[in-house]
């Protein structure tokens, strides 16, 4: 087995008496999509926050590429290659698609373009931004204004912004939310492509998508991992079927 890109060891987070994350341990391997599913309020978003670094766990640790990052802030984790796909609200509507990604390239590279002349650095930033847009199939829309994109295209742009950070692992929180059937199919194809280059931790309510995409699935119930396995194993797990309110979704 390859070394995990991401490893959670016994993560715990309480809000008062409520254990929102209860001894969660799991791994994401390189080129693996590991999906986290669970009923509303199971603690999926809280878990993502602890992985990205916006929330500190009470106990346990987050290891990224073998390094303990539990105490590192979001930016340091991002620089190591742990990228969270931000929600559409982080897209600057009055900027072009290319400019939106260029901002992320600039944020990543910080001062690394400072030795280039201004024109040279701008060209280098745009080249990297265009490469990220190409990776998500949005290069043709580079010159369009971000607010003119369809909902699905905005989702693609979010992914391009995450990719511009040169990640090794993508943390995707409901990347299909609000997408129509055609857009969903396109985004699923895109996520399948991205898996060849990145490890992906996916939180998603669309069960069809999860079962078709995920290499492994972990089911979170009341903050605990009730089961981890392949799609077939999860579908067949009686405890999962009992714990999961929407049993129909597992049919
Ligand atoms: N800051 C907070 N203070 C107190 N309770 C919180 C806080 N944040 C989350 N919770 C509680 O923690 C539980 C888990 O919430 P979380 O948003 O992580 O679940 P989720 O699985 O992402 O849900 P959904 O599928 O609806 O997005 C919920 O009961 C929620 O009310």
UniProtKB/TrEMBL annotation:
Q: Which organism is it from?
A: Azospirillum picis
Q: Which CDD domains match?
A: ABC_Mj1267_LivG_branched
Q: Is rRNA processing one of the keywords UniProt gives this record?
A: no
Q: What is the recorded name of this protein?
A: Branched-chain amino acid transport system ATP-binding protein
Keyword set, alphabetical order: ATP-binding, Nucleotide-binding, Transport
**Which InterPro entries does its entry note?**
AAA+_ATPase, ABC_AA/LPS_Transport, ABC_transporter-like_ATP-bd, BCA_ABC_TP_C, P-loop_NTPase
Q: Which SUPFAM superfamilies match?
A: P-loop containing nucleoside triphosphate hydrolases (SSF52540)
Q: Where is the ABC transporter domain?
A: 6-247
**A Pfam family per the record:** ABC_tran
Gene Ontology terms, MF aspect? ATP binding
